[in-house]
Amino acid sequence: MSRSCTREGDETGRLAIAPADVKAVDPAATVAIAANVAVAVAVVDAVAIAVANALALALALAENYVG
Q: Which sequence ranges are marked TM in the entry (predicted)?
C-alpha cells in the first residue's frame, strides 16, 4: 500500500494549501530588498564608468604616443 503526501484527500498528488499556510509579505523586507538592489545597481554603474574612463585615458595616451 502506498503512502500519499497529500492533505485533505487530494487525489491529484498536489499539496492542498490552507489559507493559514500563506504568509503575508513583509513590507520592511521588501524595502530592504529594494535598497540592496539599488546599491547593487549603483556599484555596477560606478564600475562601468570607471572602466569607460580607463579606456578613454588609455586611448588618449595611445593617441599622444603615436601621434
A: 33-62
Spatial CB neighbours of 33, under 8 Å, sequence gap ≥ 6: none
pTM of the shown model? 0.56
| Distance between CA atoms of residues 66 and 52, nearest Å | 21
pLDDT in tens, 2-20: 455 545 555 666 666 666 6
Domain ranges within the chain, ordered by starting residue: 24-66
Per the structure block, which three cell numbers stand in for 55? Answer: 579606456
Residue 25's identity, in one-letter code, is V
In the numeric block, the cell 538592489 is attached to: 37
